[in-house]
Amino acid sequence: NAWRVGQVILKGPDAANVDIGDFVIFPNDRGLTVKNLNVAGVGVVKSGSFLNEERLFGTCEPGETDEDSSSDS
User: Fold this and answer.
1) pTM above 0.85, yes or no
2) Cβ neighbours of residue 16 under 8 Å, at least 6 residues apart?
3) Are 29 and 45 in contact (CB under 8 A)?
4) For residue 51, how far is the Cα from the chain centroid?
5) Is-contact 25 61, C-beta < 8 A?
6) What is the pLDDT of residues 7-65, one digit of tens each?
7) Cα separation, 46 vs 19, whole angstroms
8) Contact 30, 55 (CB under 8 A)
9) Which of 47, 54, 62, 9 shows the shortest CA–CA distance to 27?
10) pLDDT score of 2
11) Of 5, 2, 9, nearest to 58 (Cα)?
């Protein structure tokens, strides 16, 4: 994929267009990767990325995946 979806768990004081809890879309090749980061109030983040807000494509709503849907025909 050329892009990824992530959930905002921290934001800096200059991030005006996102809020904690938002789901964001961003380029796959951008951001500083972090692993096993202990975030106060959240816990250990096993895998994540730090991004500048300018790198985001936008916000989105999570949808159903193939694993979430079932066909009871």
Assistant:
1) no
2) 53
3) no
4) 10
5) no
6) 999 999 999 999 999 999 999 888 899 999 999 999 999 999 999 999 999 999 987 76
7) 21
8) yes
9) 54
10) 85
11) 5
